[in-house]
Design brief:
Membrane topology: Multi-pass membrane protein
CATH superfamily: TspO/MBR protein
Mean pLDDT: 90
Subcellular location: Membrane
Shape: elongated
CATH architecture: Up-down Bundle
Number of strands: 0
Radius of gyration: 17 Å
Strand content: under 5%
Transmembrane segments: 6-26, 47-67, 79-101, 135-155
Helix content: over 70%
GO cellular component, one term: mitochondrial outer membrane
Protein name: Translocator protein
Distance between the termini: 53 Å
């Protein structure tokens, strides 16, 4: 029983690790560089992002635990559903490195478009396994839709930042 709690906590915390690392690496770029970018009026205030990502990472982490648990751990049945999850998580963690770290809006845009597809693929692969886990990913997909539109808009409105650090 205690071991299951450890797995639950581990899976739930895992997405936060990359999110925290991305924030830590880029924390100085956000107030300096990001504030200078042209952004649409519907861009959420900066203070919303850590709250949103805490909720989203917790939900997706717990959802991944549900899938892992339902498939009996690291079994052959878990390769595709958890592989898709891992791939989308890697792209999620890479986005801030492209956007803030490299200031490469084109790569950030490519990353988030691929991320959208992997999240949809993850959810499709999870649906037959655990509908609750799939539903826990819906807010994440919604936030990604907004983030994708925001990335597209920032990319279009800031052509001087298409390819490389300025």
């Amino acid at each position: 029983q205690g071991r299951m709690w450890a797995y639950t906590i581990g899976f739930t915390v895992l997405p936060h690790v990359g999110g925290f690392f991305g924030w830590f690496i880029n924390r100085k770029e956000i107030p300096v560089w990001y504030e200078k970018l042209k952004k649409p009026s519907w861009c959420p205030p900066r203070r919303i992002f850590p709250v949103a990502w805490t909720v989203l990472y917790t939900g997706m982490g717990y959802a991944s635990y549900l899938i892992w648990n339902d498939l009996g751990g690291c079994s052959s049945k878990a390769i595709v559903p958890l592989g898709l999850y891992g791939a989308q998580l890697a792209l999620n963690w890479a986005w801030p490195l492209f956007f803030f770290g490299a200031r490469n809006l084109k790569m950030a845009l490519i990353d988030i478009l691929c991320l959208d597809g992997l999240v949809i693929g993850t959810m499709c692969s999870w649906y037959r396994i655990n509908k609750i886990a799939t539903l826990l990913m819906v807010p994440y997909l919604g936030w990604l839709a907004m983030a994708t539109c925001l990335t597209i808009r920032i990319w279009k409105d800031n052509p001087e930042h298409f390819f490389y650090k300025s």
